[in-house]
Amino acid sequence: MLERYGFNVAFVHRADLQSALARSFGQKLLHLGCEVRAFVQGRDAVEVTLGDGSARSADLLVGADGLRSAVRRQLLGDGDPLYLGSTVWRGLAPGEGIDLPIGDGVNWVGHGSEFVAFHLAGGQIYWAAVTKEEHGAKPGSEGTKHDVLERFFTWAEPVPALIRATEEAAILRNDMYDRRPSIRWSHGRVTLVGDAAHPMTPNQGQGACQALEDGIALGESLAQTASITLALELYERRRLGRANRMVRISRQATRGVQIDNPVLCAIRDRVLSLIPRPMILATQDATMRADR
Ligand SMILES: Cc1cc2nc3c(=O)[nH]c(=O)nc-3n(C[C@H](O)[C@H](O)[C@H](O)COP(=O)(O)OP(=O)(O)OC[C@H]3O[C@@H](n4cnc5c(N)ncnc54)[C@H](O)[C@@H]3O)c2cc1C
After folding, report:
1. Which residue, judged by its Cα, is nearest atom 45 of ligand 1?
2. Which of 56, 98, 135, 201 has its CA 20 to 30 A from that of 67?
3. Atom of ligand 1 nearest to the CA of 176
4. What is the 3-state secondary structure (H, E, C) of the chain?
5. The pTM of the whole model exceeds 0.85
6. Is 158 near ligand 1, meaning CB less than 6 Å away?
């Protein structure tokens, strides 16, 4: 990885990344707890109405409000995200006594399910488990840890050991969604970034990475011209193709994991094992190399 791209895979806990970004931006300009309800575009500004009824005016509104973005709802009005048929459990376990190699992480794929684990800084191990579930299914009476263990207790170690070593409170459960790729994210002085623009399934580990690439491309586009509308056109030209490609690749990966017929699973695993290394590297190149 280092030799090919000049950098290694970095596994960072989202809270650490968020703190680092907030520290570097500065607390003074950061106003938390402000729910965006609606916006109105004028010729020279955009006015945003907040949850407490107050209004703010700005040159530009960037909707970075995630999967169920209120800004997207008003801007594109393209309905709810699509449930893909799988649920993800994720947890943080203490690394002591767990036999997991330090390095690029491990990904086990089973019948309609998957388990991923890797070391984080500070001696903890992050894991994520995917299974096919009904939309909106709630935890059973014995709790989330029991539910996930029930589905993975027959898997090879350290999968069950990792789940057992995780506190109930350190396990999160989310249904998996994405959206059909959109052909635009901007109108006038309003645009979208991250999951608001291009939510994708977590199978490629690219959602937050693509959000960061959006931020860089948007900043560079705004620095290139004084016209907001032109800058947003530049931003879309740089980002739509790549981000939408990731949405499609992630969905294909999800569909591959969802195969649960044993014969089809055997075929899938055999085909994957036969893919020539240059082809695997070419796919990886497309993910790792941002178009700049
Ligand atoms: C299980 C799982 C594993 C993942 N693993 C990876 C991974 O390994 N690598 C990776 O790159 N990505 C991963 N992702 C994807 C990643 O989490 C998302 O792509 C990323 O969080 C998107 O960032 P965002 O800022 O666009 O949206 P969010 O992180 O969803 O942030 C949106 C913010 O907007 C706020 N908000 C919502 N509505 C409003 C409103 N009306 N007004 C004001 N604020 C509002 C929310 O409170 C939230 O703080 C994973 C996702 C899941 C579910």
Report:
1. 65
2. 56
3. 53
4. CHHHHCCCCCCCCHHHHHHHHHHHHCCCCCCCCCCEEEEEECCCCEEEEECCCCEEEECCEEECCCCCCHHHHHHCCCCCCEEEEEEEEEEEEECCCCCCCCCCCEEEECCCCEEEEEECHHHEEEEEEEEECCCCCCCCCCCHHHHHHHHHCCCCCCHHHHHHCCCHHHEEEEEEEECCCCCCCCECCEEECHHHCCCCCHHHCCHHHHHHHHHHHHHHHHHHCCCHHHHHHHHHHHHHHHHHHHHHHHHHHHHHHHCCCHHHHHHHHHHHHHCCHHHHHHHHHHHHCCCC
5. yes
6. no
